[in-house]
Amino acid sequence: MLPSEIRKLNAGELGKKEEELRDRVARLTMKRNARRLDKPSELIGVRRDLARLLTIKNEKAKGASA
Known about the structure:
The protein is an all-alpha fold. It contains 3 helices and no strands.
């Protein structure tokens, strides 16, 4: 997911997307631990998307309070 796509989302959509990504990370982590994950790079990509989303969400929160 590109940062420009994330920046277009409103607060409600950001929360929903965050929940979705956290769930996906959890599922992929369980698959990895069970040795059933075909592409380890998929887990890395989802984690990066989550980190990107949280960074932008934090930027928006700080911008609104300033």
